[in-house]
Amino acid sequence: MRNYVKSRGPSRSHEYTWVAQTQERLEPSILNRSFSEDNRVVRITEFHNQSSPALIVLRDNGELLLLLTGIKATWNGPGGSSIYHSIAWVSSGNTESNEEENIRRLIIRDLQGNLQNDIASAIESCPEDELGFKVDFEKLKQIEEDKNVKLKDRESNFHIGRGKLGNNNQDLKNQLVDELKQSRLPPEDGFLIVVSDFVGEQLFKDVKVWQGLSSRIQGEVKKNSMQPTPPPQQSPKTIYNPILVFLVGLAVGILMGIIISHTYLNLTGRSLLNYPYPQQHQQNHIP
Amino acid sequence: MSNTLRVLMLGYQRVGKTSLLASMYKATQDELAKNYRFQIKPGTDSTAEFLSDAEDRLASATEFIVNETIEPSDTWRTFLFKISSENETILELEFLDYRGGQLRDASSEDAKKVREWLQSCLAIIIPIDSPALMDSKGEWANLNDKWNNPKGISSIIRSELDRNSPRLVILSPVKCEKYLQEGRGEELRRKVETVYEYLLDYLKGETESRRNCVVVIPVQTIGGAKFSSFEKQADGTVQGRFVNPEQKYKPEDGDQLLRYVARFALARIMEKNLVRIDDISGRIVDDLGWCPPKEKVNENEENKNERGKLENLVKLLKSGLLQFAQGCKQDRVLKILMGASLLDSGR
Predict the structure, then answer these.
(1) What is the value of ipTM here, to two decimals?
(2) Looking at CA atoms only, how far is residue A1 from chain B in angstroms?
(3) Cβ atoms of A153 and A182 closer than 8 Å
(4) Which residue of A122, A149, A183, B311 lies most exposed, with the fewest beta carbons within 10 A?
(5) Is residue A284 situated within a structural domain?
(6) pTM to 2 decimals?
(7) 3-state DSSP: chain A helix, strand, coil percent, rounded to 5?
(8) Are residues A206 and A79 in the same domain?
């Protein structure tokens, strides 16, 4: 999984810059993509500003992005202004990879408020450096691979629910945490989770976000998809329902029995169609 | 119909691009929100949210504003303003803001985006830090070259060779309260002409199809705050200090940028009937290239109403732009330097 951090040094000459694990200036390309939905073109910048904490989970073109913004730095900028980090994890693995599980754990930890300080402690001011800051990517790797959050998938194709928008309060965050502990992220492309007070309800609807929380939404807008999405209907080719198998077997057995009996009776000169009762009945009335 | 015109903010780090956008936003809430038939409003939630936050930061600064009130941009962003009438959007103005320091790195995403917009934009706004322009003397002699970097701006504009339509260039001195209030507006404008002479010569010499209209529009982006001095910080950098004794935030003339953009757009549309409904195809035709057709009307009886609706929208587009254009100021400070005819819509 690739990891990137954006921050700036304390001096006026320093500017917000993305760096990759190699400590070189490199911006994740997924951040510069545009996403079109019903003639509305949207960029990720519409979901956050630099100072408010935001969590954005986006799947696009074989990549899964977890972007966290608004992480307060341990140092200040010129004039005492605050500096905020952003961090991006980008996975190119398949949807069942460990990377996706790690991303789920990171999301859960962030929603529980247990991640921001850990991340901030891995980034330090370095005024003499050209960028003005240094990132301990080893430490970030440990944070990424921390397995303290236990996941219990119900089934491999059980995904978080779709269309849940609500207020960014701890109750709804906890509900999302519970969902994430037992459900995978959907395999579809799109904005899967956005938690950001910068976003209004309309933008969530415009991009058809799977789950969106914002303090600008009052209450819970949509309740009908609160429950995790059930597994999709299984294909008839792979289904082996025991009751159905029994009924089909029974029907075949009866049919086979009828055919065998019919053949036997024809060979012995009797017809199943009028045997035994009509013939017996008729015979009984012959004087 | 929803057509988008691009406006590029062209300036280096900390020159005042975002605060200029905030003053435009403020204008849409004040002067431009009066009882007109047409309104200019923020076109997206993020535009309103981001710029109102910037406005709040400027407004909450009380006695002193050190030049750090608005956080430096952390990425490139677009801001959308919609011109609408009776809830019908007739035109969108899209502004590009970015990390100014990234202009020095041609491989950066921000620099790539600026190059892309240079070719496709209707107008370029060049914010100019007024204290650096006017008071860069003695110890601070290099501040204008460092902060405003007129040569750098000029070479970026000169690097664009693919455009084939006229363009509006606005030189906009910002944070200029001190100079305007001291009656030094003309001096400010002349200084712009002197310092940007190299750029102006280039723009004047462009071919007929690439003609430029150039206007100087000073904007008081920080309202009541006045520049007092430059100060060297502990880290060796220099900052401007601003005094705001009346503790007010009242930016002025942010609307003029939007009005001049509207006036230029209208003139381009009217010049050769560039945006119209084609009689044969029934499409909205745009010969300018920055207003792509998005709707089609079939020429049959059933769709005559639809065609009428589109014709009405084109009329609305023109009359809406005309309304905003009528409020354009012009005097010895806010002055059209070249290409005035490109602003003439013939009405």
Answers:
(1) 0.70
(2) 22
(3) yes
(4) B311
(5) no
(6) 0.77
(7) 30, 25, 45
(8) yes
